Amino acid sequence: MLKKLLITFSIILLVLFISIYVLLFTGSIPKKSNVNISLAEASKIALQKGGDLPIALNSMIIGSGDFFKGGAVAGEFKNYRFPFPSYQILYRKANVRKSIIVDTAMNFKMMKSMKTGNPEFSKTNFKKLQKALVQCSQIIITHGHFDHIGSLMIGENKNEFLKKTVLSDIQYNTILKGKDLTKNQLNLTKMISYQKYYFLSPGVVLIKNPGHSPGHQMIYVILKDKTEYLLAGDTAWHRDHMELRKNRPLLISLLLKEDRNAVAHQIAWLREKFIVRKNRVNLILSHDYSYHRILIKKGILGKTFSLQ
Ligand SMILES: [Zn+2]
Fold first, then answer.
1. What is the pLDDT of residues 242-277, one digit of tens each?
2. CA 146 – ligand 1 centroid, Å
3. pTM of the full structure
4. What is the pLDDT of residues 8-27, one digit of tens each?
5. Under DSSP, is residue 226 helix (H, G, I), strand (E, B) or coil?
6. Residue ranges with CB less than 5 Å from ion ligand 1
7. What residue ranges define each of the domains in the chain, with the CATH number in brackets?
């Protein structure tokens, strides 16, 4: 009897151990990526119609919190602090009427629901963001997760914001399916369809990048002074994905309903471009706090929004 019990207990332990290993520790990245995105091509498209190029890319962090240990990068149990940023592509100094906001972050209630550790929220920056959303000419999103579209779902100005929002057809359909916004609200937005690259405005090109979510896209930006950026959204959450060649833990990919294989190849592509070949384009990952700080310190990324 005791022997039988011991065997059953050992089997349960083994299954538990294997499950934890598979769910939290596995997440390899292929050596060679199947992603075929050309930043040179994106640059060509961004410049092809002429027009005044943007003069700055500003960022603003609305809040931040510690992601649960072991949840960000497969097998890594260090503390990853996630910032929740919004970006402003500014065309003319002191004229924010022509500016594009990329990702709208969220309010404190939404942030609290993420249950991150030591949450910090800047009411000042949130207010400033709401003003910038009123004053801007266009709003775009990397993808439809609520930490990137929160401001479109709340407040008295949300319909005004939606009227200025440009969504890809896949973003439209997935946001509708997720029920974060109603069909009537989404019908206020401008919907676009594109294959791979989309010229949005002088110096700004959308790049289709499904994986983290079906409607995920990256934003390529080139400024008047030729500084270039790739806003890669949530393709990778931290440079560690590329440095350590590790995906998100399987558990997280399953919860997010990611196309894990697509994300693995996208991380391999980012690694090849930005770590191995050190591409001149500045890579911006939405939730990599330490790298955000470096770019701000170097003056490559503006640390707050311009307002009128
Ligand atoms: Zn996301």
1. 999 999 999 999 999 999 999 999 999 999 999 999
2. 8
3. 0.94
4. 888 888 888 887 877 887 88
5. coil
6. 145, 234
7. 2-30+38-297 (3.60.15.10)
